[in-house]
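Lab meeting, action items carried over

1. Structure of the two-component assembly. Owner: GW. Status: complete.
Input record:
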Amino acid sequence: MKQQQSERRGLTRFAVPEPVAKLWTLAAPVLVVWLVSLGASALSQTAAIDLGYALANLIIVVAMWTFIGNSGVLSFGHIAFVAVGAWTLSLLTIPSNIKAAIMPDLFPFLIDAQANPLVALVIAALVGGLLALLSGLALMRLNGLEAGIATFALLMLVVQVLTYFKQIGPKSGQSMTGLPRSFDLQSVLVIALVVIALAWCYGQSRSARLLRASRDSIQAAPASGITVTRHRLIAFTVSGALAGVGGGVWAQLNGVAQASQFSLDFTFTTIAMLVVGGMLSLWGAVVGALAISALSHLLGVLEKGLQFGDVMVSLPSGSRLIVLGAIMVLVLIFRPSGITGGREATWPFVAHIRRAPAAQTS
Amino acid sequence: MNLIQALIDATSTGAVYALAALGIGLVFGVMRLANFANGELITAAGYALVLLWPVSWPLAIIAAIVVSVALALFMDVAVFRWIRSQPPATLLIASFGLSILLQRVFDGIFGTNVISAAVAPGLAASIRIGDLRINLISIVSIALAAVLLLLIRFFLTRTPMGLQVQAASEDFRAARVLGIRAGVVIALTFAISGVLAAAIAFVLTTQSGGVGPTFGVQVTLFALIGSTIGGLGRLGGSVVGGFVVGFAISIFTTWLPSWINDFRIAFVYLLVAVVLVIAPNGLFAGRAVKERA
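Predicted assembly:
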């Protein structure tokens, strides 16, 4: 945030070649996430635990940005891919004997299936991406707002199936336990940074540029020969795969996976992060996820109670979502494009592009 | 005559969902806001009903209407009035946030547990005609929905205010230029959606007898999805879409064999997906005035 303010005041900026300025839009979020992680894990035990969840949420929010930010189409359904990712990783890493004990109705091949956690994470991404591809075939035919509302249906459908389909999970509504902890905070951080890099790479691709053109003008882009549906579908698939990774990491940290956890509250928390940060930029997704996570940690501490001399100050439990909801609504009223304004991180550099005569000939 | 009985039950469920879709559709027409927080209007009215019904039933009904209309107007004044010019997606996100926020507020005031009271216990009875056993509440909800639909249709087509609402739904900017007061028209549609929410809450509390913080969420979600498959921005389409979804839920609940009955809700969503693949703009989509320029 501080960086953004100084940028708007037009403080010290250095003209650098355009590729460097572009790379900085990747380097800045990565650096910030890394520094925040370093600080939070040094702060306290609870901060370190919350940091894990913050990074998992960060992955999910970045995944949502790859679709929502580039296409401009809302999706309330990404938690479905998160759920599927969490399910896949859980089924592949819980030891066979525990699986057989807590999920007696499981398909036989699922009881035997085992994978190393990193491989399981890749498979979680594949399953998430596949689900996104298949559901996208139906959803991406819709226009903006209808697509957004229909993604609610996708989320509910997936949650219902995971709740009741006992051949792929526990009996109705129960939870999957016995997940071995294989990722420490360090590896979660690395995974988060890789996801940011992947999302950034996708954002630089031709397909993503064409998609952003369609976001900015849904009339002009098809007229210029862009098949909007296809590029939306690509974005949705990439985004579903990254959300699957987020779900896998989240299940690893949580240790338990239960269908009812993938609820509207979860959807809301991640959407709020994206909206508060600014949903049109990767930088916004990162800033939003970190800012809301920090706030959430603070409110969590306050809910437990804080000693000020003789006075015990504590918030009623559940106030976390009230504050979060209020903040999101206020941001939407006063700064609808989010705290980053939907711009990528550029400070302290500025692309040296205008003055280069070579650039103007194209 | 199991069939007729099931059809009547399904029609009554469909009627409730159609009312919810109507409330959402009216607000969507003038505001381009798909109001997710409509569910919290239903919840608020539901709380008023279960808390006050043991005291006095006329008071409970009046309170339910007053509370939900007041909350609807408050939503408009506190949130939506300020972001009226934003794109529909922003409005939808804001209403989603408002919905979650209000759920937590209900949670804080009334607790997470379901508050129960017998609302209109007289309607729990059923009447027999030959072999046919018909729940009184089914008849009442069909009648209530029919009366409200006709009243709103009369209001929209025969009164000056209703015509203004229609004009604003057609072309908001042109309507303003012609001297229609935007704030009044929008507040009016919010108020009507509040009245409809109170009616829905009455039927639902009579059926279930209990209200929790997420009481109105499911019916709203289905009504939103129903209006989408019917065609957002077409009032008739929204109502029919809502009815179809409610009807399907009831039929699936009755007729799916027990081994897949758990998946009845999943089947409804699957049905929605199939409809959307066939008709991406909704079954009754008219001219596409989706985004206000």
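2. GW to write a short summary for the group page. Key points so far: The interface with chain A takes residues 34, 79, 82-83, 86, 88-90, 92-94, 96-98, 100-101, 103-105, 107-108, 217, 221, 224-225, 228, 232, 262-263, 265-266, 269-270, 272-273, 276-277, 280-282, 288, 290-291 of chain B (CB under 8 Å). The first helix of chain B runs from residue 2 to 31.
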